[in-house]
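Protocol step 4 of 6: structure prediction from sequence.
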Amino acid sequence: MTKTHIRQKVILSAIAGMIIIPGSASEVMAAENTEEQSFVQAAGIEAVLEKCYETEVKENINLYLVPTEEGEYLNMAFSDTGDYTYIRSAPDENSSWVGKLYGDSAAQVLEYLDGWTKIRSGSAEGYVPADTLITGAEAEQRAAEFENDTVTVTADVLNVRNGQGTGADIVTQIRLGEQYEVTGDPVDGWYPVRVDDTDGWVSGEYVTEEVSYSYGETKEEEEARIAEEKVLQEQQEAAAQAAAAEQENTAASANASGTAVTAGQAVIDYACQFIGNPYVWGGTSLTEGADCSGFVQSVYAHFGISLPRTTYDMVNSGYGVSYEEALPGDLILYDGHVGLYMGDGNIVNAMNEADGIGICSATYTNIIAVRRVL
């Protein structure tokens, strides 16, 4: 699920703070401080209810209490709008807008007014029409619709497999601190995740699971995001144009002479001598053990060609060709993996600890790039 606006994270936890009721405010000592965007637990609820009776708002108490499994929480609301609602500087349609509350966003209610509600969502604070929010009992019932289940990697490198258990094949690898969407319920301590367009499973021993919400953004944050996206798009378009021109010139010359085909087959013939040798993370030895990029780097070093050490740098080596144009010896790059194209839809590569150096389908997962270095 791709979002075009800033998402900030809050992990549900039991806290205390201020309870807001129309016409009055009751402060409660905070047990501890947590992240800036938090929702407030109803400490001293009996006193609050008594105050509600005194101010004759007994019939409205459900507007302000949102029970959860963590306890009773106050002032939690969700957006009930289309793409977004303007967050305004004053409770007036003619006032300037200071931010946007998106259709999938959560917010903290700061004040209830006649037809307007003052909220804070992320860094944006201001007023939205009351009818654009889901509050009270309905907010409690629909909270799960707005939750984002994610896992954060706690290991330096974590294998993503095509099933539960270490016996399942590795489809890609993810790294320390990276966060990914959980796509379903965990099974036997394994979590289903989506990495780019690839689905797989990760061990719960090496991730932390979190429940988070999406928030709105200020006008300034939106402007900065749009400017950054524009620069990135321009850079990608320029890089694609340069790569296309280089590909056209170089590929035409290589195909005319047949040199790339002959040299590439020599690379594959050499690489296949090491099939069956072990996979070792961080290794570069073709006999004692190598990981995927170490294997490719060492094979090409035999032919006097220096390649970068990691897949993330190899994606810039040589020049790009399409998979349909791939020749023996071309680098086939995936998200966190690389192999050498053999022809006939196969690659030779250092696969994993269980299988070592071997042969598999070149399309076993999504291909990020095909690079020719000969």
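Step 5 (inspection) to follow. Residues 219-257 form the longest helix (39 residues).
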